[in-house]
Amino acid sequence: MSVIEALAEACGPEHVWEAGPADRVDGVPAGWVVAPGTAEEVSGVLRAAAAAGLSVVPSGAGTKLDWGPPPTHVDVLIDLGRMSGVLDHAPDELVATVAAGTPMRALRAHLLREGQRIALDVASPGATLGGVLATNEAGPLRHRFGTPRDLVAGVRVALDEGSLERHVDGHDLTRQICGSFGTLGVITEATVRLEPMPSARAWVVRPVSTPREVHQLTEALVGSSLGAAAIEADLPGGGAGRPAEIAALFEGSRAGSAARAEAAAHLLGGGAAVEHAPPDWWGRYPFDADDVALKIWGQPSELFAVVYALRDAAGIPVPVRGSVGAGIAHVALPGGIPAERLDGMLNAARTVLMARGGGGCTLLRGPADLRELVETYGPGRLTDATVRLKLALDPEERMAPGRLSTC
Fold this sequence. Notes:
By secondary structure, the chain is an alpha+beta fold. The chain has 13 helices and 20 strands.
């Protein structure tokens, strides 16, 4: 039996095809594409791939396939777009079980009808739940609610040899699959914790002049009893044509959120204003499709020092935006930045982070030639638990080979 026949037997001949020029993962061409419609069909695809010794890479909407190191090869690209929908929703228990290929927009719309939400306000347009979990992507609400690792109550995962599992002895599969970039298995469904939709929201927006001022204002908000749901900052860099700003979100009852927002505006001073809609940059990444993207994280109190180090190494103010209250931000650099300058920026940021309590600076996305010339991820890439789980679940490294260092 040929490869395509074996894959067709798993999920039907109309859902298997030889890859075309557009079927790539971060520039790496795929051999075949399959679109299973159920967890059992995913299991069958993995069994067929294992029997033939083929590598597989799962994909949802493909919004983040260019994040992290590219795979070394892609024999089978698994398109999970057919696996969509809310499988079970218990509004009284504030949980829902959702197929991995479900677009986040569709999930939000479903939950809104019950006055509920999942606190994952991610910035990737069209992202699916499985893709968000696989990359552990989170938005401004991470300040209060955390990342997918904190919001997922359980997962069902198709493993390399084709079994469907919810647990792996000796490992926290639910937490470790989040952020694994498809290297441990294929997420087929997840049970997520929900929150009641707040009655009202208000934003406090204040102009800022320096990263240190962002730090001081963030500390004031965090140290207060006002309970911001999110604290974000936008430092657009030179020539952006708009001011740098810090913004905080307050949620709750109409009267309560308004009162806390007014108190926060008074606390921040300096022209802080209460708004009923977020600033245009809120919940968006600072980088465009052609930019080099960095992610920095560390102690919230030390993030401003990393921004200064990046600016010094670059020689100019660079666009930075992110969840300053949680110690996470993203940086945009021009796509044509020389490798030597990028390497200097990464080293400068990592040096500051190591001296100030730890953290990291990751080249999240960039041209292949840059990634070949700079140390992309730095030391301490994987926990021992993740290494052990990878060896246990995928000893022949057929699951997204080469992408493990993104975990």
